[in-house]
Design a protein that fits this description.
- By secondary structure, the protein is α+β, with helices and mostly antiparallel strands.
- 37% of the residues lie in helices and 10% in strands.
- The strands form 2 sheets. It has a 3-stranded antiparallel sheet with strand order 4-3-5, with no helix packed on it. Strands 1-2 form a two-stranded antiparallel sheet.
- A hairpin with a 5-residue loop joins strand 1 and strand 2.
- Helix 1 packs parallel to helix 4, helix 4 packs across helix 5 and helix 5 packs across helix 6.
Length: 227
């Protein structure tokens, strides 16, 4: 779960520099966390994956895709294998990861009543089965757990494959229960957060989330077929 994983949408748009004004939004979570996204609803164009966050002299938090000078800044980047709106990957033919972590996936999926093919699809979409995956916003490991969520799940080392899959599957199981087994809504919530799904009474209109849900569905079907 990338830059949007476990997002609980509360409020909207923060003005940025002219270069990215229409592309960067500030999301405040109910627990006080602040998250930033450059994926606007219905966005069709390519995504700027790296940009810079800084404060202007008047204290306003701003963004630019050019490195600012004379001020302190933070590099922000959103990473998610299946989240890039303009991805050129053919999700119907891209090679599947059939053997990596098979025993762990099957064990935890069975323990929590989750389709192992769905778990594999989520891992594929989130990290392409890279156990060391680390996004610029702090999501970690195979299932891209955010530190706060990992802590709530009792995951002390998100880069440990066993702990990561255990925590990720438990969270996914909670989402499936929340949405009465609706895989589409659970997948959307895994990407954009239950708050966003509730806000829009369905899959949020974010271009990234829309793409993510469709791609996970394709991967899920393909993993089901081979398993």
């Amino acid at each position: 779960m990338s830059r949007f994983c476990f997002t609980f949408l509360l409020s909207g748009v923060l003005l940025s520099s002219p270069l990215v004004q229409a592309e960067v939004r500030r999301i405040v979570h109910p627990d006080g966390r602040v998250e930033y996204t450059n994926i606007a609803p219905q966005q069709k164009a390519g995504v700027v994956s790296t940009y810079y966050k800084y404060r202007k002299d008047n204290g306003v938090l701003s963004f630019t895709d050019e490195k600012p000078s004379g001020v302190e800044y933070e590099v922000v980047r959103f990473d998610c294998y299946a989240c890039q709106v303009n991805s050129t990957v053919n999700w119907e033919t891209t090679p599947l990861f059939l053997e990596p972590y098979r025993n762990l996936v099957n064990r935890f999926a069975e323990a929590h009543g989750v389709d192992p093919a769905l778990v594999r699809a989520i891992i594929h979409a989130e990290s392409a089965f890279n156990p060391a995956a680390l996004s610029r916003v702090g999501a970690q490991g195979l299932m891209q757990l955010m530190p706060g969520t990992a802590g709530e799940l009792g995951v002390t080392n998100p880069l440990d494959a066993e702990q990561n899959i255990s925590g990720g599957v438990r969270y996914l199981a909670k989402l499936l229960k929340l949405y009465d087994g609706n895989t589409r809504l659970a997948t959307a919530a895994y990407n954009a957060g239950p708050g966003a799904v509730g806000e829009y009474s369905g899959v949020p209109p974010y271009a990234e989330t829309q793409a993510y849900v469709k791609r996970v569905a394709i991967l899920h079907r393909r993993y089901q077929t081979v398993e």
